[in-house]
């Protein structure tokens, strides 16, 4: 009986040592005698002790912080850009067997792609079309990492640093554009005002009373603003009579 217990205890320990537990976000790649056998998890499963070997892998989304990269744009401007990349394991088998270290590989591929894409675009496109650049980088890196069982979910450029001299030049350009816009708006307003004054003058020529009413309105405004100002009102009829007499004298002199 003691011999049976002596045999059962090691056997029980041997069997129990084959049980494995993986969390919901973990997968176990099982190698049987060195050859790929299956992918287990999540939860509880059993492997053959001393025969099966397990490589654990995390399938959650991972974040890669791409350090600031210095490159030259298509219009010969030196810029420094850093970015962040999000990826996750889609196929645990390929992530273990097709690449030695998928984390390093993804980082190197994303860093190289970032520099290449920026080098093919001018500075204005990089500053204005970041979303387009992000999608382009994502597609290229995703194509590179697809054989490794890795999917690139998102790429975001964080900061774009440009030289101080270029920043001053861009500020001067923006100021010149705003000044041009202001001048155009002012010229357009003066044009509209001149057209309105021209229409008003025509109406006043056809109706002299309108001019008289405008003068009275002006006097009212002056009186409201400057109470001590003395204004002498000259009748419009006197001005008209003087003008007619001047025209008559000029005509008589011409006939002589």
Average predicted local confidence, pLDDT? 83
Give the number of helices.
8
Globally, the shape reads rod-shaped
If you compute it from the alpha carbons, what radius of gyration comes out, rounded to the nearest whole angstrom? 43 Å
Helix-strand sequence: HEEEEEEEHHHHEHHH
**Within the largest sheet, what's the order of strands?**
3-2-5
How far do the termini sit from each other?
161 Å
Poorly predicted tracts of residues: none
Strand content: 15-25%
Structural class: alpha+beta
Q: What level of helicity do the residues show?
A: 55-70%
Characterize the biggest β-sheet: 3 strands, antiparallel
The tally of strands reads 8
Give your account of this protein's structure.
- Helix 3 (102-119) packs across helix 5 (130-145) and helix 6 (164-206) crosses helix 7.
- The protein has 256 residues and is of the alpha+beta class.
- It is rod-shaped and about 155 Å long.
- The termini are far apart.
- The protein has helices at 2-16, 92-97, 102-119, 123-128, 130-145, 164-206, 208-225, 236-255, and strands at 19-22, 26-32, 35-40, 43-46, 52-58, 62-72, 78-89, 150-161.
- The strands form three sheets. The chain has a three-stranded antiparallel β-sheet with strand order 3-2-5. The chain has a three-stranded antiparallel β-sheet with strand order 6-7-8. Strands 1-4 form a two-stranded antiparallel sheet.
- A hairpin with a 5-residue loop joins strand 6 (62-72) and strand 7 (78-89).
């Amino acid at each position: 009986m003691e011999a049976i217990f002596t045999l059962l205890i090691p056997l029980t320990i041997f069997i129990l040592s084959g049980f494995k537990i993986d969390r919901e976000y973990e997968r176990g790649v099982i190698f049987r005698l060195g050859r790929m056998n299956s992918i287990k998890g999540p939860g509880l499963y059993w492997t053959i002790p001393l025969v099966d070997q397990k490589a654990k892998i995390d399938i959650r989304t991972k974040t890669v912080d791409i350090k600031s990269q210095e490159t030259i744009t298509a219009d010969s401007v030196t810029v420094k850009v850093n970015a962040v990349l999000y990826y996750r394991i889609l196929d645990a088998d390929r992530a273990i067997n097709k690449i030695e270290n998928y984390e390093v590989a993804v980082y190197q591929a994303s860093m190289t792609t970032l520099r290449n894409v920026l080098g093919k675009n001018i500075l204005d496109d990089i500053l204005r079309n970041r979303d387009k650049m992000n999608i382009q980088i994502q597609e290229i890196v995703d194509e590179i990492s697809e054989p490794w069982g890795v999917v690139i979910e998102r790429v975001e450029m964080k900061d774009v640093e440009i030289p101080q001299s270029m920043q001053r030049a861009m500020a001067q350009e923006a100021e010149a554009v705003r000044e041009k816009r202001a001048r155009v708006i002012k010229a357009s307003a003066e044009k509209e005002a001149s057209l309105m004054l021209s229409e008003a003058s025509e109406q006043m020529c056809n109706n002299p009373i309108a001019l008289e009413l405008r003068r009275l309105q002006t006097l009212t405004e002056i009186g409201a603003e400057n109470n001590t100002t003395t204004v002498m009102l000259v009748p419009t009829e006197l001005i008209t009579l003087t003008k007619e007499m001047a025209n008559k004298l000029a005509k008589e002199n011409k006939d002589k």
